[in-house]
Design brief:
The chain contains five helices and twelve strands. By secondary structure, the protein is of the alpha+beta class. Bound molecules: biotinyl-5-AMP.
């Protein structure tokens, strides 16, 4: 993939900027900003994006619509690969978080327009102070490594790995992508809370990630469910007092 990087100092959200230009630019355009003042997570959650972190969005135009559910995985896998190049072991918390010892170092936000484009937004705490949020303990590369990292170097490395995973995606090698996500699954065999669309939640145990990208969970009542979209939390029932915004759709 030939990448074209647009570098901005401040932006509301690189995903928003990317959406505005997506239809007029070639695939492989990357919007990178030093600071986002309205960085977003999923379900309208806030993404803390001060100077020192890596916040960027990649515009892709995959030919097949059915690859879309796996797009989030290629973003997370590229991050995990690059962390390992720095000697860090990242794990994927399905579907879009990257954790190091259960602390959140990165998040991926995929948005798009049917039959037109897909945007993979990636945020990584590199040298910035990671935020303290209710849901997650966060961590940065600097904190883990005890030194500052060149942000642009991290970006270049991620784009290299993203090219690789994207080539698998567009050549239909979905099974290889899922296999790697399974290997890096932070949730395997763990107790989680599953959030349903109506605001209710239940506890269960994660069994696996399926070929179609869904998360297979054994609920406390013995039922097996496959989550396609949605949210699971590693927090226990006891610690949950719902300050976080959970999806209701
Ligand atoms: C995500 O959402 O993890 C997706 C984050 C995607 C951010 C990138 S940056 C470039 C592009 N432009 C954007 O505007 N967004 C993308 P979610 O799974 O909903 O997680 C959001 C939650 O993560 C928040 O509610 C906080 O608990 C936590 N959080 C916020 N900022 C964080 C940070 N910098 N590091 C770690 N955790 C954070």
């Amino acid at each position: 993939m030939k990448w074209h990087i647009v570098h901005l100092t401040t932006v509301t959200s690189t995903n928003d900027y990317a959406k505005e230009i997506a239809e007029d630019v070639p695939e492989g355009t990357v919007v990178w900003a030093d600071i986002q003042i309205k960085g977003r997570g999923r379900w309208g959650r806030e993404w803390y994006s001060p100077k020192g972190g890596l916040w960027f969005s990649v515009i892709l135009k995959p030919p097949m619509v059915q690859v879309i559910p796996h797009v989030v995985f290629i973003g997370a896998l590229a991050v995990v690969d690059v962390l390992s190049e720095y000697g860090l072991e990242g794990k994927i918390k399905w579907p879009n978080d990257v954790l190091i010892h259960d602390k959140k170092i990165a998040g991926v936000l995929v948005e798009g327009k049917a039959n037109s484009y897909v945007i993979i937004g990636i945020g990584i705490n590199v040298n910035n102070e990671p935020p303290n949020t209710e849901e997650y303990e966060a961590i940065s590369m600097k904190e883990e490594l005890g030194r500052e990292i060149l942000i642009e170097e991290v970006l270049r490395k991620i784009l290299r790995r993203l090219s690789y995973w994207y080539s698998l995606l567009t050549s239909g090698r979905i099974a290889d992508i899922t296999a790697q996500v399974r290997k890096k699954n932070a949730l395997a065999g763990r107790e989680v809370l599953v959030f349903w669309g109506d605001g209710k939640f239940e506890s269960g145990k994660v069994l696996d990630i399926e070929e179609d990208g869904s998360l297979k969970v054994l609920l406390k009542n013995g039922q097996i469910r496959r989550l396609v979209f949605g949210e699971v939390s590693l927090r226990s029932m006891k610690t949950l007092n719902s300050p976080m915004i959970y999806p209701s759709w």
